[in-house]
Amino acid sequence: MSADRYAYLGPEATFTEAALLQYLDSHGLRSRASTQPMRNAAAALDSVLDGDCLAAVVPIENSIEGGVPATIDALTDHGQLQIVAEVVVPVRFVLAVKPGTDPSTLTSFGSHPHGEAQVRTFMSANFPDAVYLPTSSTAAAARDLANDAADHVAAVCPALAAERYGLEVLADDIGERQDAETRFVVVTRPGAIPAPTGSDKTTVVASLRSDRAGALLDMLEQFATRGVNMSRIESRPTGDGLGLYQFSIDLLGHVHEARMADALQGVHRVTRSLRFLGSYPSASKTTAPLDPTTTDDSFTAAADWLDSTLNG
Amino acid sequence: MSADRYAYLGPEATFTEAALLQYLDSHGLRSRASTQPMRNAAAALDSVLDGDCLAAVVPIENSIEGGVPATIDALTDHGQLQIVAEVVVPVRFVLAVKPGTDPSTLTSFGSHPHGEAQVRTFMSANFPDAVYLPTSSTAAAARDLANDAADHVAAVCPALAAERYGLEVLADDIGERQDAETRFVVVTRPGAIPAPTGSDKTTVVASLRSDRAGALLDMLEQFATRGVNMSRIESRPTGDGLGLYQFSIDLLGHVHEARMADALQGVHRVTRSLRFLGSYPSASKTTAPLDPTTTDDSFTAAADWLDSTLNG
Amino acid sequence: MSADRYAYLGPEATFTEAALLQYLDSHGLRSRASTQPMRNAAAALDSVLDGDCLAAVVPIENSIEGGVPATIDALTDHGQLQIVAEVVVPVRFVLAVKPGTDPSTLTSFGSHPHGEAQVRTFMSANFPDAVYLPTSSTAAAARDLANDAADHVAAVCPALAAERYGLEVLADDIGERQDAETRFVVVTRPGAIPAPTGSDKTTVVASLRSDRAGALLDMLEQFATRGVNMSRIESRPTGDGLGLYQFSIDLLGHVHEARMADALQGVHRVTRSLRFLGSYPSASKTTAPLDPTTTDDSFTAAADWLDSTLNG
Amino acid sequence: MSADRYAYLGPEATFTEAALLQYLDSHGLRSRASTQPMRNAAAALDSVLDGDCLAAVVPIENSIEGGVPATIDALTDHGQLQIVAEVVVPVRFVLAVKPGTDPSTLTSFGSHPHGEAQVRTFMSANFPDAVYLPTSSTAAAARDLANDAADHVAAVCPALAAERYGLEVLADDIGERQDAETRFVVVTRPGAIPAPTGSDKTTVVASLRSDRAGALLDMLEQFATRGVNMSRIESRPTGDGLGLYQFSIDLLGHVHEARMADALQGVHRVTRSLRFLGSYPSASKTTAPLDPTTTDDSFTAAADWLDSTLNG
């Protein structure tokens, strides 16, 4: 039996691959999965659209490795795909060397500039004389070191890369922002929306009407009057002219919940276009208690009231 | 064949009877109708609830003859009744005497204090020496004068009362506020809601939740996000404690229009209770054009969008 | 030395006099005060405006003895006066008889209809055969009984009236709503605004612009964006035409607090007229903690920021 | 006398230089100015901060040549600088060759990929066999062609580049989006804010509080309640964690206008931080009429009202 294929934004051994492996493990899918690094987000999504891969994992927010606007744009352009899960991965760097390397010989280290920026404090405190040599990705720093294809004698990279390429970890978690993390989404072809879990997110992309002041406020009030909160909002130019934006938005809640369904219909009315990218379990399982005016029960009671008002 | 019976807030020959006659005329119902003055709004509504009368006409807003809070309270208490029409009547006073009276003998005049307040300028300019004698209603001033049961020799009363009691009109439209008018509603037992005309009103009574600051703002935002405007809002204490109010509200639009139905469901969620008193043609036929984001079509398009999002 | 004179809405020995006495006691003013019942709210306010009395006490909200709209209208018309305090009095009825009366002879009782409505359950349970005889006020029922000027043999009245007229209390607190209470305000000529206590109210009367849908929402948003909450809002027709209202509003906070001063300026802009009736200590000393975005400090910081932005 | 130095985002002969020249011409400054291309937005701003240049011109919105997020970030980081003008330049490409080139020999053309994307329709219709060769900028395609340093025989570039490098224009305005344009800002060291013209913009950067749902709505309502409209809003991650954003916002109006000053103070209260980047004349001279509730006069009247309320 052939393996199920999963695409991810490459290269290999980055935080994105770590996110995919975390997803496969938590869903018991790893044993029958094969994973495929892709050169960019659009290519990863294409491989799903083509049927070549079952799903793709791409970064969506605040990644050290890059990627947010490209992912949002690619998802919007590949409108038929849907997000079915999110994965949050801590951004944690290690200092790795070839096994047996004497730390006192650590005269240089390689990493992607984003990685180097994160570990500057650690390196200058501990290896003040080590020269920094840039690489095309943090994983490449590890790979090239392992393959004797590098000028550097140490790599600042994800733990996954050190492990994958057989390096020895001299120091773990050496980044300055110990709470840094990246959020990834798992994208599939359209199909059943994952069932609500009580702690879900919904992602949409909305283009505002250009003919009215206050269009953004109008949209946000549609959410507010149904008690729907946002966890992320980002503007993206539509490409149609100065001052025309679309907004990529993550909402707390599931489209199968009445408040979300009602709010999205309201947003549909007041926007130029609205695209639904998916409802899926939130990586964070904590849920804020719902206000009693926005529960499914309160929506059902309101619909029943209207029905009995209209029909006696 | 017995006549159809209609109740109205008495006494006879007031602006309320004028409103009822205007309603009957405009609906071609006058020839087969009998009309019945009632001692107060509650009694008028009772006669409809009992099946004794087909409909009742009661003042609802800003009447010279009194009546607004009593009507609203009575309508709220008689919750099963519905408003099926509104009638607006200009508040126009005449100076009437027994036929043949010489104006120079006009030494006194009778009216309800509300009527007298309206004609003070006219009377002091034209009959500075005429003494004012209060009566229990403006119509009673005319009736008692006609019946030789009054001390006054002239009546300040509605044109209808002068005509009814065979008085001669010395001067017409003598009130100070020539644009004064009173709004009446026609109330029936529950039944079919009058069909939308494109220029309708909807009347509701809502009690706010007491447990939250901003409850009134919350309610108004439910209307605003669906483009539903108010033409009247009045507070009434609920009787349950200091600071607890219900609001009697007239809205522009019909409950069979999507924006109204959607807004009322939203209001139902955020209020303690909501009572629907009727959707009915507006007396004023002018309509503001609807914003394209709040037409029935935009609501249908939003529902279709959600349906296709959920079901592929 | 002549006494300081205080007016109150009469008659004597009602809850309004009780409110005045409670105010005088709590401010250590009773020993040098003389109190004066007035026939209506306007007369009480007139006596202050004339300089005849130092202050007047009038009911403002939900009183059993009546009075709210009349008070609000009188305060609005007497625009130069200001509210300097509020007093909340529990509405508590006693059953009183002439001393030595045998309860078994209690065949009738007198009270104002509002009072009778409150004690119906108690009376029918305990004195099912006692006939109810209406009086013009609850205090009058006691006074006439004491003066042998009544047909009734018992009075349902405030404790103050029983005490004042030397009656014997057979049963205390016999009303059905044991939490009923009435709110009174103490009104003086214009002068220094009472200093903020941290738990204050501000009363205003605002007339909405008639030329715009959403005028009420506009006004409430001015309060909401400064974190100012309302404890009471009541509509009153302006008398200028159908659909034109002014709103009498109690706000939590003091005009010397930045958020209130800023909100009132915003309301001034968006309304047709705005009248300030006073800032005064709240009868309830409980205060909700202020949101950090609406403290005086946050307003000062914002003004400082703007100043440094404009002036370097 | 040495010339006044102006920096711009290079290279030479791009739309950014065109914007700078347009600015200098319209202000009568060109004759005494020297212009200096800089390698990126940060370097251009540095040259102003250092005192090396009087002002810098950088693209801020929707440029074909790139630049928006980088400019916003650089402006935010160089917080002491201020925007004093905006310049809007149409994005218009020409097809240019060395003088005397026979169009039938046009077998290849060079341009930046963004430029090539804009002219694909024109080129495939008119020169279907011409091969596209990428260059580092549209201006470089012209420069290298003029210097015999290119493999291509034609350049797709701004008219300014063709003119600067002595090329012959074969076809003008060959882009697909004939309404494409880029907005640039002129940035100086802090100093006097340009006087209001009646048609101005104000640019700010605000970071939202992370501790509350609805923080964006709260901010927008501060603008809405003062009638301040936005012409651009863009989110930028703060770098402090997932879901933490700052917003770069262009507002219609000037900080010397009361509604803007009041709104910005409100925004200061409800945000984590607020940075003012400048008030300056709008490139578009059309102005929407102000609502009477948001004019300077209405703010002055409100302040006067409050003053007389507090001080008698």
TrEMBL record, chains A, B, C, D:
The keyword Amino-acid biosynthesis applies. Keywords: Amino-acid biosynthesis, Aromatic amino acid biosynthesis, Lyase, Phenylalanine biosynthesis. GO terms for biological process: L-phenylalanine biosynthetic process. Residues 5-189 form the Prephenate dehydratase domain. This is Prephenate dehydratase. SUPFAM superfamilies: ACT-like (SSF55021), Periplasmic binding protein-like II (SSF53850). Its EC number is 4.2.1.51. Pfam families: PDT. Residues 204-281 form the ACT domain. Pathway: Amino-acid biosynthesis; L-phenylalanine biosynthesis; phenylpyruvate from prephenate: step 1/1. It comes from Brevibacterium antiquum. It catalyses: prephenate + H(+) = 3-phenylpyruvate + CO2 + H2O. GO terms for cellular component: cytoplasm. The record marks 182 as: Essential for prephenate dehydratase activity. GO terms for molecular function: prephenate dehydratase activity. It comes from the Bacteria.
